[in-house]
Amino acid sequence: MSQFKPNKKAWKVWRRLLNKLCVTRYQIRLLRPMGQWLVTPAQMRRSWPFWINPTHPEVLFAQHEDGTFTAHPRLMFSYDAVASEAPDPAVFAGRVPVQARERKGTFFTTWSPLAVAPIVAPPPPTTFMELLPTLDPWERDLFDTCHFLVPYHEVLHIVCTEPLLFASDGGAASPKASFGWVLSTNQGQRLLHVSGPAYGAHSNSYRAEGYGILFVMRFLFRVQSFVTGALSDSRLYCDNKSMVASSHEVPAEWKRTPNSTQASDYDVLAKIWATRDLLPVTACPAVLHIKGHQDKKTAYEQLPLPAQLNVDADKLVGDYMANHPNTDYTVVPVLPTSGVQLHLPAGTITYNMKKEVSMARTTESMKQYMIKKYNWDEETFLDIDWEAHRRGVNRHHKRRTTLNKHLGNNLPV
Question: What is the pTM of this model?
């Protein structure tokens, strides 16, 4: 590698990093053992002067300045530096770097290389359920409860031969939020139930609905690799008009600016748009709005099929939150299209970022000021329902100045 020699400051930073990676400053042992190399030694950027194949240590390979290699046979305890020959391609292919020095016409190696363990690729998954454990955590966790209602091979046949109906729903009961969706044929045969968590520091149904639509798209994207033909036409029903409008099509290029990434729940929307682009046009479902909770006024059996599926999806949402009371919903796994997230003590902030940053910066100092001003203790401050206070003040926006004077005891008399 061609680079300048590190200065004292660089070495100081390097030693500081090593101290953090090791057990103690004096016991130079890594906290976590290193894994295998990501690339083979021959593909590294550094040009090593000496190489050995660990399975054939009888030959030492020397690399010269012009990039050529010579092979040097082994003597008793060293390698002949004078006699050389062309490397054997079969032996040369398995070479690894080794440290050596020349002395009196021979090469002495100062340490012996370890044999590189071959990386055995696991067999590719043959079913959707075998695929799930191999997915990235952000995607695997959200197929948490994937339940096939008919045999798997029948689902693969139906998704290629019959029109499909999806219904997704999402719900939030702070601090929890979850989504659920149902797959059915046009004749009403239920094929698949899926539900999972909708992550976010401040849960809301809009984001939960987005998770539902996203993972319908991800299911279609993943399942197409297990079918031989094209996927059938499909419709996706959702009872949130805003999410239907947002996810229906990718915004125009001129609307996608750096500031637009601060929009509410942009990470989920961006992943929906990216997944739509990965699907063939014929396989991408038509996203349609449907009125929710129609079973409150009409018996379930008398509802049209899309409304029944919406009710089924709504039940999956409630069941998931009830069955997973200890799930931490506040930290959002990074979605690939997002790349960066804002984490505060409350969790991952997915909307109102400017306001949340301002609140995080000023809340503690304001709290200490009020405790000191009114001679409160910590327990008294926490006894006040500040959220109810905020909502009450906001309902009287036109009289906010007068109200704040009363609350602060700043009256003229």
Answer: 0.69
